[in-house]
Structure formats: structure tokens, C-alpha cells
Amino acid sequence: MCMRAFVPLLLAVACSAGRILPSPGPANGGAGGASGADAAGSLAPVGGAGGIAGAADAAIAPPGSVGEGGGSGGPDVAIAPPPDAGFNSPDLAHPRDATPAVDTPPAPSTNPPGDLAPYLPIWTWGADGLPYGDLADLKKKTGLPGVTIAFVLADGGCQASGDITDNLGDVKAFIKAGGHVKASFGGQEGTYVESRCNSAGALAAAISDFVDATGITDLDFDIEQDPMLTDAVNAMRAQALKMVQDSKHIKVAFTLEAEDHTAKSMGGLNSSGQSVVRAAVTAGLQISHVNFMTMDFGDNYGDQPLAPVVIGSLTDGHTQLMNLVPGLTSDQAWAMVGVIPMIGQNDDAGAFSLDDARAVAQFAISNRIGLVAFWSTDRDCDGCSGVDQNDFDFTRIFSAVTH
Asked: Is residue 277 over pLDDT 80?
């Protein structure tokens, strides 16, 4: 999966064509543009539930509680919507004896809506050519309730890089306006903090220093490099995060590669991803989300919609989480699920279109999926994603998951 990490700011460009690598996006629309998507103009941060079919015209509203301690909450989310109630066909030969049978729907969920926190690549901070200038401007123009800033890497030794600290004024302005900020460690490229720490205690100290310096307590660990997916590193990372969670009360999410569901194999997490979750459970860590990187499924999906592939992977992942986390209910497993599509053209022949976004958003609403965090804010603009769209179309569509 192409979640590339740090690239020097001097290479920053307006549109990240790939999952992380900041190369220019296609100038013209590509595959998968949805018809009828007329989302021109800025987005006013006003309320309203809004449906998926018209999501490209809807304003974005932040959820009821955002900010540094905000977000919709933990893994207490609902399963799919109840089926329509109906009657079984009566026995027409004996109509007086036929008793209509009613299908009893499940009880409605009382769980909160999901969170929306798309990724903002660090190297695009302040880049020219984007429809927003910085986080505060992005908040003003879209009402976006949250962002995931990526990526935090090692700064020489066993310490976190300072890119977020360098832009802390903008982060605080976003939070003051009602936004919630997550920070993502890792990615596809670059040096992970854990690779420079020789013990769980040292890693815990580095993460604690980051929390103290930024005030960000909602942390994501995007683990893609094979040397960082061994049992030994997974155990050390989990132990360190447990220490910091106990002392700093951090939220911890993991972002992991997602496999497609095929006739021969299950989708969801591969064996390496399952090992990450298993190590966290063993360490006693409380996991807020397991984010599935539903992207780059292969060239064989180049001529078909990606929404069914994404949904199949998430459905299998939901089942995996119930098996990996003891005592997790179906509702709680859906709330723990996070979905991260790459909007527009993927790093292969596949393209995630506006119609795919509508379908995935509706699935997320129906199942009360805990988090939508697409890659990435700098791609959600006219001429940046490789599909035909207006500025902030994907943000408009996915904003419905917060209502």
C-alpha cells in the first residue's frame, strides 16, 4: 500500500498524485468522475443531516463535540441498518388460518455518528496551488471537523520530528475554530521513531515528549515498513504506547494495509496487520480505531467501481476485529473500524470516484463506522485527484458520516 512518508518540504507540490509521494497530480479529470456532482463554491459550516445522493451540494457541519478532546467517541457503534419490516406470504389455500408474520428489526443504535479526519500531508503545509492556505483556512472554507496530520518520523535519534511543532500556531487556530487534530506516525517511507529507540521505555519517553510539545493526544500509527512489523517491534511499540496511554491518556489507532476479498481469500487485514493488533491487545492497550488502507488493490480493478471492493474488505475486517479483540461486540467492532480510501486515481489502474465515495459514505453511515480518513486533503481539488471533480467534492460527500 502506498502510504509514503516524509519528503522534504522543498519538494512540496499542490497535489499529491500518490498515497504519499508528493508528485503532481493529473491536470485533467480521469476515470470515475460522478455525474451530477455540482459542488462549486465554498462550504459553509452549518448543520443539517443531508443524504448521500445530494452530498456534493451539502454544507459541512462539524459534529457536536470537536476540538482537542473532541471527536465522536470510542468504539460503541452500530451494525447495519435494520431490514424493512414486511409480511410473509399468507397461505392462500387457507386464508382464515394464515397469520401474517412480521420480521422484527434490530433495536436502533444509540451510538454516535462517525468521525471525519482526512489526512493532511506535512509537506503540503502552505503549498501553492491548493484551494486553501493552511489548516485554519481549510476549516473556514469547509467546516471540516477534523484532520490527521501525517507523518511524524524520527528526528535523528529516539525523538519525534518537529514539523507539527513548527506549525503549532496553525494547529491551535484549527482547534480554536472547533476542529480536532490527530497526528499520524510512520508511513511508507522515512525513519520510524521506534527504529531509533532501543527499548519500550525510550520509545514511550519520545512519544510523551511529542504529546507535551504539541498537546495532541489522538495518535495514529501507520505501520507499513516490513522491519517495523516484526513481532519484537510490535511488542515494544505496544508496551510503549500502553505506558503513554496510562500516563498521558492518549488515544491510539493503527493504520494498516487492507486486502481485497476474493473467491479464494478473505479481505481485511493481512497477517502482519493482525499481528500489530494482537500485540496491542496483549499489552492491554485500548485501541480507538483500526484504520484499513482501502487503496491500491491492483490493476485488475482498473475498469470497475472500487466501492464494492472497499466494502468487502471492511466487512471482512469487521469480522477479524471481533476475533482479535476479546469481548468486542459487532457494534463495537464497526465503531473501531476506520476507512482510508485514496480519493481519485490510485497508484495503480484503479480510481476511487465520487460515486464510490457516495457508496462508501452510505455504508459507513449504515454501519456506524467509527472513522473516515481519506488520503488526502491536498488531492480534494479540481485537477488534483485524477478524476473529474470540483474543489472539496470528496469532503462534501464524506461529511455526511458525521451527522
From this structure: yes
pLDDT at position 383, please?
A: 96
In whole angstroms, give the CA distance from residue 188 to residue 3.
Answer: 5
Q: How far apart are CA 76 and CA 112, in angstroms?
A: 8
Query: Which amino acid appears at position 110 of this protein?
Result: T
DSSP H stretches of helix in 249-342:
271-282, 307-324, 330-336
How far apart CA 268 and CA 102 sit, in angstroms, is 35
Q: Encode pLDDT of 195-247 as tens digits.
A: 999 999 999 999 999 999 999 999 999 999 999 999 999 999 999 999 999 99
Cell triple for residue 254? 493503527
Rg (CA), the chain: 21
CB atoms within 10 A of CB 213: 14
- Cα separation, 229 vs 192, in Å, equals 11
CA distances from 203 to 150, 200, 217 (A): 19, 5, 16
Nearest-CA neighbor of 243 among 287, 281, 288, 205? 205
pLDDT value at position 39? Answer: 37
For the whole model, what pTM was predicted?
0.78
Range in 100-109, 251-260, 389-398 the model is least confident about: 100-109
